[in-house]
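Quick log. Single chain, no ligands specified.
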Amino acid sequence: MLKFRWLLLSCLSVLLFSSPAEAGKLLFWRFEATQNRLVFSTDDRVQPKAVLIPNPTRLVIDLPGTTLERPTVNQPLGGAFVGVRVGQFDSQTARLVVELAPGYTLDPQQITFRGISPTQWLVNLPQPQRLTAQPIAPPPPTRPPITVAPPIAPPTPRPSEPSAPALLQVTRNGLVVRIKGDRNNKITRRRSRDRRRIEFDLQGITLPEELVGQTLNANSYGVSEIAFEQRSTSPPMARLTLAVEADGPDWEASFNRLGGLVLFPEGGVSAADRASTVPRSLGSARTQPAAIAAAQFSSDNTQLLIVADRDVQAQGRWNPGEGTYEVTLGNAVLGDSFRGPQLQANSPITRLRVRQQDSQTVVLILQPTLGTRVEGVLSQGGAVAVQFRSPRSPASSVDRTGLPSQGVVLFVPPPESGGVPPVADVPGSELPRVPNSRALVVIDPGHGGKDPGTIGIGGVQEKNIVLPISLQVKELLERQGIAVKMTRSSDHFVTLGGRTDLANSIDADLFVSIHANAINLSRPDINGLETYYYQNGRELAQVIHQSILRSVNIRDRRVRQARFFVLRTATCLRYS
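-> predicted structure:
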């Protein structure tokens, strides 16, 4: 049976207005970590209100007269920004909260709001500032109730290891690892706070025996090594850890049909090649391990401070089966005179176990008290802070406008008059569901970064219009069980070749490139919807084209055939 591969390019040259409603909708939001910028869009005009709250630092943004119409969602981040939480504060107010890691704050004078239209907003944040650390009080004379476990014997070396080229392949688009999987396997990505490690958790994946516990040298595109770990077997879950350069791009992962895991940098390999420094190795035997001297609570019992005699790297994770929180210290050993904290009735934990897991790793296992939440781990130099949130902490008050009364109220100027109102949401019921194997769609927001695209009325740039539309398309498709990859998810430049190379490298079924073209206002007759295709696929282009016309009041400029670069070079079926 002939497999159809195609590309859709929607060329919008008109202003689309949503119909009035009792309350507007928050259509999309995204935090662009590379630029410290929050972007959000509504379907009706809104005047945000904002306050910066300390201890821990949070930027709270309320959108009066706006609803989210979905459960609370979170976007985890790395570095000083912990994540973004979006929810419904009350029936008429949607709330966005940007959370910072413990020990960091923002200068409120440098937080700027810009409404490029009454419905499209940008929030630019400064680089987070490190708070002055509190000095650690000398430990009490009483010996703390901790348990130091004996070291765990290292695993017996394997009699033979396969050569790296048989397991890891460097291609012109990225890296391919010989792991069997398909698009139904969920992949979760995290980047470390120092940006030198990217972890991929592969749900439902059992690593080949020859990869378990191994570290392969990559030395390509800013990746020095890839470490492999089988985190669990029932259900199976594997983890890949990339050692990368701190200023390098984020990486994506996707299984292809040839039985391999494709790893590729966001923005294409050219973005990775621009990084110039050599990344820190995953292995820690090259430097003298840090000696862990003490663990002590802060004066307000909101932190467990771990002190070492030199730089130490820390990672934390919950063990849901045991109800404990584990802090792993890499390139570290227990000091001969290690001192633990004094556990009392108001301590945030009831038990602490410490063990030297191997010659280079120390693990602390914390048992939090009932209701206490561990909010994360922050390391800097020879100090590591484990942050707690206790139910006994006083709750912040809320004023009659809905915003917390503590903190600094921020000035939000009225929106600019220009801009393009957002595209109305398309009902999900009109989209067919994919029953078994997941289709893979690549969404390509046109232009970006140094390439603004066309410039419209009031200086509005095409790249800033097509990105929120593309994110809405991504959300609609994922709601129907379709796997989606983006050629760009923030305002950065991607070459034409990099866009189609991405689709080709992961064997996409569909490539969608979204643009908003413009023409001189002396020709008002030139506006509407155009859908292009390259060779075969005209019938599918007609279906998509007619579906848009039924949903949007827009002039029909027909389905056309063209030889655009992204149409010719994408190996999936091509439309425009």
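The CA atoms of residues 328 and 363 lie 5 Å apart.
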